[in-house]
From TrEMBL:
Catalytic reactions on record: a long-chain fatty acyl-CoA + 2 NADPH + 2 H(+) = a long-chain primary fatty alcohol + 2 NADP(+) + CoA
Chain's role: Catalyzes the reduction of fatty acyl-CoA to fatty alcohols.
GO term, biological process aspect, one: suberin biosynthetic process
Start and end residues of each Thioester reductase (TE) domain: 104-404
Domain Fatty acyl-CoA reductase C-terminal intervals: 506-573
Annotated signal peptide: none
UniProt lineage: Eukaryota, Viridiplantae, Streptophyta, Embryophyta, Tracheophyta
Name of the featured protein: Fatty acyl-CoA reductase
């Protein structure tokens, strides 16, 4: 599925890269013999209160308006042994953002929206320019109102400001008509000039996140579009930093500990012990390949089918799990090559789920990565899982990703050095969660608080063989629906209906587990050294107001008291869609 912000670039089915090739063909200039092997150490593994500050007449609230009261471990507050690790002065997050003007793409998506809300609520920011795809200013303003200002995510901010809320957000949030899939981001000359003069920080959050979308669509959204944003950012006179929201899975098919290293043009992620002739990733060649495939197929259906297949084949060839991860990696490579002396921050979150605390616990938008699994299991429609129960999952709440992004922007921009820094926002290395624990927490919750549609909730079974998984799932679902014992009418309609329902549920369970296969057997963890340093450099107040430490998460309480209730409220009750 696409994040909300991906509506910024939804090309028609016959979309072609041809008009953009001239913009990107110079990537070939970067394709020297700079392939780097990154040796990674292998880890052992098994087989199978409310506070505020006042600036410019407005109050900025530095903690959620409805703080969550949980008995959680806190490694950085209230423990005398940690006092030596606390920076007295801190990073200076609030001071950095005072009066700064920010340009954000993808602001209507899950993470982009949380970043906007947090900056507005907790810092004395100048203006936040939101690039919005719309036919004119009125349409952009309408989207801003409906998708951001009136969002329930902003209720906390609305409650804090009361009658002045409307005036506050209208002054701070500036919609800009644009499209990152167009040259110069689709900006008119007046808007472009204003941004070049005003913007201090660019946050590039827009992306297409469908794992196995058409290759050309993902190249356009995740490679050439960020390139355009960077080229525009380089023309901003007061630019302090460019932040790119990526994904931790750009590290590809590697095992052990994934380091916070930049990706270099030409890198592939094939396993280092692979005997095959490892190819070199040439982005210009990949664009050409997608372009040729667009014109080679005979119909729109064939184009879509061929380009989805092509993307998966190229991802497999170069060592990534899917087309999305491959194109996000390509996007990082391009940014690293063209950035010049622009300070760049790469944020690589793992699987983003609902908010831990801010602005309210459990807020989520859209059916996220693990939520279809949670909902299907809660309904009794997922009796088994294709994966290793001892594998470590990696989930991170959206507010921790937003806080890390904001704090890291302040830290890296204050250095005033033309560096590229990578931050993994992950939990697996410091607060690991295994699948066996995850599904146990789900079982405990749904066993005591079943969904209306739930049927026979039992502990999940695990399979390492997909055929065994499919056979077991088919038997369990068939037994639930009693397809062997159901009595039909003289035409057999009732029997056929039950059998069709069984086939549909089995097919969905198969599709779900195939989609998550790459993380069901994922033998790697993500190094978070830069995020840990960030925590140490924060003052005590910053650690409270911009919480980023994953050690504060109790996973049982997070799922049972925060996330699943949030899924029920914002997804199940919000849509009542049958899965």
């Amino acid at each position: 599925m696409l994040m909300t912000q991906s509506s910024l670039f939804s090309p028609p089915i016959n979309f072609s890269l041809k008009k953009h090739y001239n913009e990107t063909k110079n990537i070939a200039l970067f394709s020297g013999n700079n392939l780097r092997e990154n040796k990674l150490s292998l880890s052992s593994r098994k087989k199978i209160g409310k506070t505020g500050v006042l600036y410019n007449g407005y109050s900025y609230f530095t903690s959620p308006c409805h703080p969550l009261q949980l008995d959680l471990p806190n490694h950085f507050n209230g423990d005398d042994d940690d006092d030596d690790d606390v920076s007295t002065d801190g990073i200076g997050i609030v001071d950095f953002f005072q009066g700064k003007n920010i340009l954000i793409t993808g602001a209507t998506g899950l993470l982009g929206k949380v970043i906007v809300e947090k900056i507005l609520r907790s810092t004395p920011v100048g203006k936040i320019y939101l690039l919005i795809k719309a036919k004119d200013k009125d349409a952009a303003f309408h989207r801003l109102t409906n998708e951001i200002i009136d969002s329930d995510l902003f209720k906390c901010l609305k409650d804090e400001h009361g009658e002045s809320y409307e005036a506050f957000v209208r002054e701070k949030l500036i919609p800009v008509v644009g499209d990152i899939c167009e040259p110069n981001m689709g900006l008119d000359s007046d808007s472009a000039d204003a941004l070049r003069k005003d913007v201090h920080v660019v946050i590039q959050s827009a992306a297409s996140t469908t794992l196995n979308e058409r290759y050309d669509v993902l190249i356009e959204a995740n490679v050439t579009a960020p390139q355009r944003v960077m080229r525009f950012a380089k023309t901003c006179k007061n630019l302090k930093l460019f932040a790119q929201i990526s994904t931790a899975y750009v590290n590809g098919r590697r095992e052990g500990v994934m380091l916070e290293d930049p990706l270099i043009m030409g890198d592939n992620r094939r396993k280092e012990d692979c005997d095959a002739n490892i190819p070199r990733l040439d982005i210009a060649d990949e664009i050409n390949l997608a372009l040729k495939s667009c014109s080679a197929a005979a119909s729109d259906y064939d184009v879509t089918k061929d380009l989805k297949k092509l993307g998966l084949e190229r991802a497999e060839l170069f060592g990534w799990y899917n087309t999305y991860h491959l194109t996000k990696a390509m996007g990082e490579m391009v940014l690293n090559e063209i950035r010049g002396d622009v300070p760049v921050l790469i944020i690589r979150p793992t699987v983003i789920e609902s908010s831990f605390k801010e602005p309210v616990p459990g807020w989520i938008q859209g059916n996220r990565m693990f939520d279809p699994v949670i909902i299907s299991y809660g309904k009794g429609q997922l009796p088994a899982f294709f994966g290793n129960p001892e594998v470590t999952m990696d989930i991170i709440p959206v507010d921790m990703v937003a806080n890390t992004t904001i704090a890291a922007i302040a830290k890296e921009a204050n250095k005033n050095k033309p560096q590229l820094n990578v931050y993994h926002v992950a939990s697996s290395n410091r607060n690991p969660l295994k699948y066996t624990d995850f599904f146990e927490y789900l079982y405990e919750y749904f066993n005591s608080s079943p969904l209306v549609e739930s049927q026979n909730i039992s502990r999940i079974e695990y399979f390492s063989d997909f055929n065994d998984f499919s056979e077991y799932t088919r038997g369990e679902i068939s037994q639930q629906l009693e397809t062997n014992n159901v009595v039909g009418d003289e035409h057999g309609n009732v029997i056929r209906k039950a059998q069709n329902k069984c086939r549909a549920r089995v097919a969905y369970a198969q599709q779900l587990c195939k989609m998550y296969e790459f993380i069901g057997f994922f033998n790697a963890r993500f190094d978070t050294r830069n995020t840990e340093k960030l925590v140490k450099e924060m003052s005590k107040e910053e650690r409270i107001n911009f919480e980023v430490d994953v050690m504060n998460i109790d996973w049982r309480k997070y799922f049972q008291e925060i996330h699943i209730p949030g899924v029920k409220k914002h997804i199940i009750n919000g849509t009542r869609a049958s899965i």
